[in-house]
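ugh ok fine here u go
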Amino acid sequence: MKNRRISVVIFSVSLLLITTGGASAQWYRLIPDSIYTYTYNNETHATDFSSVNYNYYTNGVLDSTVTADKNLRPVAKTIYSYENGNMAEVLSLVVSAGTWLNSQNQLFYFDGDNTLIERVVTKWNGDQWQNLNRFTYIYDESNRLSVYNREFWRINTFTDYSTDSLFYDENGYLTERSARLKSTGQYVTRMLYYYDLTGLKSYQIRQDYINNAWTNVSATQYYYNKCGTQVMSETEKWIDGKWQPDSRSNVFFRIELLPGARKIPVCHNGQTLLVFYTTLDSHLAHGDCIGECMTASPISQTQATPTDKKSKSLPFIVYPNPTSEIVQVRIMDNECPVTGVELLDYYGRVIRSVNTVGQTEIRLDMNSLKSGNYILRVISDTVYSTVITKK
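structure:
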């Protein structure tokens, strides 16, 4: 099967421009064209093509996605509608006997500041739409999503089911999202997020709360080219006490240019060059990528793109880092007590755990650990994360 190539399309001046690699507004943009998904075959130990999503745009705005199976037969479709620049409705359809049938519909509601506050999901039942779920969104003083409530439709009314709490590090980067049942407060599931030195999400770990302990379920690793564009992701499942391959997705893009634009930035051997788009294929053929070269960010390795420019100082310091033997965590803010410190590997597995109540100096022995990067989580008024490097 041939993958869809990057193509050049001229687009309207009215379209929003994007930034690449932290640069100012550009005269081009990359838009997701298709996503090819492969599943792991336990018998052949290879990944087999399973499906593809094709995105379609009108005036540069995503209007629909069509999903095809491994035989490239359409099996599902999603149609997007907008109002005042916001996503207003998402309609899902499936194929049956060659006919598109309603499946699910989502309605989005925003406040006067264009902030999403509610989403209602309905399903097609017979000949009418029937309520299924309602989600409400609550934000903190920095306009970051902090609580995500989920209700389900029961006996002609919406009933509380669960609530998700979102935790950010000191610079406003999402590090954890955990869900509890509203009726009992019992944990259900959580997602842990980790980032690389450029601020891009590198891992996403899902764990379920089973028998009073967090149990690994799945882990997704994200891959980017030298320009910071996501090109692939790989997902593993936690089976019989170890991670096993599950699926892989490859992302393909197409490029759109403003009228009159002739040159495009590419990253070539660590240097950003402007090249004529007529020569783009030759540059891509020898490994260049579209956009400016990514560089390491001065922020910590576990941070992602900030949702808020404000930041506060950490209530602790970590030293030495990198380290070869011992790392010390010193609590600096008595008004922000730390209750626990965890050291995790990049699969989200806890390697060290310390109850720090009343302590101002925490010592972690890393002698027995392999060289590499580890995630240090400090639990205080929020969950802080940073990277420890073992030399």
